[in-house]
Amino acid sequence: MAITDWPVQERPRERLLAFGAASLADAELLAILLRTGIKGKSAVDLARQLLGRFGSVGGLLDAGSTNLAETPGLGTAKLAQLQAALELARRALREEISSRNALSSPRAVRDYLRLALAGREQEVFVVLLLDAQHRVIAHEELFRGTLTQTSVYPREVVKCSLRHNAAAVIFAHNHPSGVAEPSHADEILTRSLKSALALVDIQVLDHFIVAGSRTMSFAERGLL
């Protein structure tokens, strides 16, 4: 049955307008984004199918565009709508960590990095560049591919940091394997970058590994 055939008081959009977004279930909120269903399935049915396939809202947001595009019933228009919503979430979190001390809002930093990196299908190394008050002033994606000490060049990281006049940095990279544990190469690389930046008086505050919905902090592990 199409949502338009439902009683008005049960339709997700009408319920949201009447009672607020917090009153809706995950599938109902997702259905509003999808707008329409497919033959034999309402938008809510399609939303439940997506959540079932990816396990949760977080799993759906972490899914790469290729995985989303392969989902039956999720055409280019619906895919674009989901990606637009995800990008709005990224920008909202970026605004939050740009206006506040990053160390005072660690959850926002983690959420932003997870949204930025979790769905990537190859390893990506990024740096958040911070001012003297530890507010984020820029986000640079510096390297792609398997990360080793030889593929991430400390010289380029230092040049990028100086170009933005950064006082401190936070590193992050993803593990497409889904394992949020640092490799020996990750630890060597982090020490190498920290030493290089110390020469120009730039502090390394943390290095995060993002793996699906999980994040691992080098600072919390005592690895910095």
Q: Topology of this protein?
A:
Blueprint: H1 12-19, H2 26-34, H3 43-54, H4 57-62, H5 65-69, H6 76-99, H7 106-117, E1 124-130, E2 136-144, H8 154-163, E3 168-174, H9 184-198, E4 203-211, E5 214-217, H10 218-221
Parallel strand pairs: 3-4
Antiparallel strand pairs: 1-2, 1-3, 4-5
Helix pairs in contact: 2-3, 6-7, 8-9
Give an overview in words.
Helix 2 crosses helix 3. The longest helix has 24 residues, at 76-99. Strands 2-1-3-4-5 form a 5-stranded mixed β-sheet, sandwiched between helices. It has 10 helices and 5 strands; from the N terminus they run αααααααββαβαββα. The termini are far apart. It has helices at residues 12-19, 26-34, 43-54, 57-62, 65-69, 76-99, 106-117, 154-163, 184-198, 218-221, and strands spanning 124-130, 136-144, 168-174, 203-211, 214-217. Helices cover 47% and strands 16% of the residues. Strand 4 and strand 5 form a beta hairpin. The protein has 224 residues and is of the alpha+beta class.
List keywords for this structure.
5 strands, 224 residues, 5-stranded mixed beta sheet, single chain
In short:
By secondary structure, the chain is of the alpha+beta class.
Task: State the total count of DSSP E strands.
Answer: 5
How many H/I helices?
Answer: 10
How do the strands line up in the largest sheet?
2-1-3-4-5
Beta-sheet strand percentage?
Answer: 15-25%
H-E string: HHHHHHHEEHEHEEH
